[in-house]
């Protein structure tokens, strides 16, 4: 576990916890690490919602597939970020989403019950851990409402521009990169890929934006 310490110190779940406590904590929590190849399923829809995941390397996508096989990307999680905590803490019977490795990745798993219920050793870090978990859940709720604002727009153009403006505001500049290719962006916005590509072309010709692959620049 020592080789992951620098990554874990950046994880919001462990904010405010001293480095020397971290290894003891991971042992107490029963943390385990698994590698995943690209496109490998980390969690499948219907799996028991017991575990919290932490990305140690690579990235994962949280996706939802409807009855007809249409895919929506709900979010993408990168190094040191936490996922599936809302489902585990909510004690839902089974996961309503699938988590897939977006590239070769390593993921740490911690059973949620080990965080929410203090162990027999009564480790002092548990209160800080629970506090951090609640903060992380609050931040994810805000992010979820942002996505609702994006996908609730009526047209592909409105969805795209709302998303790009959120991303520009996040980095504080008009030129930025997004974590999606065209198909993934279409899945995230819940629009048709060909319609999305056509709309991007229109916006470029109107001088509203510039784009190349996953790099965008808002012009006005």
Structure description:
With 220 residues, this protein is an alpha+beta fold. The model has no long low-confidence stretch (mean pLDDT 90). The protein starts with a helix and ends with a strand. It is elongated, with a radius of gyration of 19 Å. α5 (126-151) packs antiparallel against α6. It has helices at residues 5-8, 19-29, 85-89, 112-116, 126-151, 156-171, 182-189, 193-205, and strands spanning 32-36, 41-43, 51-57, 59-65, 71-78, 82-83, 98-101, 105-111, 175-177, 209-212, 215-218. A 4-stranded antiparallel sheet has the order 1-8-3-6.
Quick overview of this protein structure:
By secondary structure, this protein is an alpha+beta fold.
In the CATH hierarchy, what is the superfamily of the largest domain? Jelly Rolls
The CATH level-2 architecture of the largest domain is identified as: Sandwich
Number of strands: 11
Q: State the low-pLDDT regions, or none.
A: none
Rounded to an integer, what's the Rg over CA atoms? Answer: 19 Å
Sheet with the most strands: spatial strand order: 1-8-3-6
User: Judging from the principal axes of the Cα atoms, what is the shape?
Assistant: elongated
Structurally, the number of domains stands at 2
Q: What's the end-to-end separation, in Å?
A: 48 Å
What is the topological layout?
Blueprint: H1 5-8, H2 19-29, E1 32-36, E2 41-43, E3 51-57, E4 59-65, E5 71-78, E6 82-83, H3 85-89, E7 98-101, E8 105-111, H4 112-116, H5 126-151, H6 156-171, E9 175-177, H7 182-189, H8 193-205, E10 209-212, E11 215-218
Helix pairs in contact: 5-6
């Amino acid at each position: 576990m020592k080789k992951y310490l620098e990554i874990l110190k950046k994880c919001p779940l462990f904010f405010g916890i001293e480095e020397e406590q971290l290894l003891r904590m991971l042992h107490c929590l029963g943390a385990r690490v698994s590698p995943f190849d690209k496109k490998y399923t980390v969690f499948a829809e219907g799996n028991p919602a017991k575990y919290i995941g932490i990305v140690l390397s690579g990235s994962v996508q949280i996706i939802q597939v409807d009855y007809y096989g249409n895919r929506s990307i709900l979010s993408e999680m990168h190094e040191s970020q936490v996922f599936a905590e809302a489902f585990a803490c909510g004690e839902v019977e089974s996961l309503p989403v699938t988590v897939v490795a977006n590239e070769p990745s390593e993921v740490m798993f911690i059973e949620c019950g080990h965080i929410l219920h203090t162990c027999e050793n009564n480790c002092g870090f548990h209160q800080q851990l629970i506090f951090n978990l609640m903060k992380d859940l609050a931040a994810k709720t805000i992010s979820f409402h942002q996505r609702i604002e994006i996908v609730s727009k009526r047209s592909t153009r409105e969805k795209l521009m709302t998303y790009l403006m959120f991303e520009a505001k996040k980095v504080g500049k008009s030129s930025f990169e997004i974590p999606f290719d065209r198909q993934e962006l279409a899945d995230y916005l819940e629009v048709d890929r060909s319609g999305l590509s056509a709309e991007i072309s229109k916006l470029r010709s109107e001088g509203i934006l510039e784009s190349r692959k996953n790099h965008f620049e808002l012009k006005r």
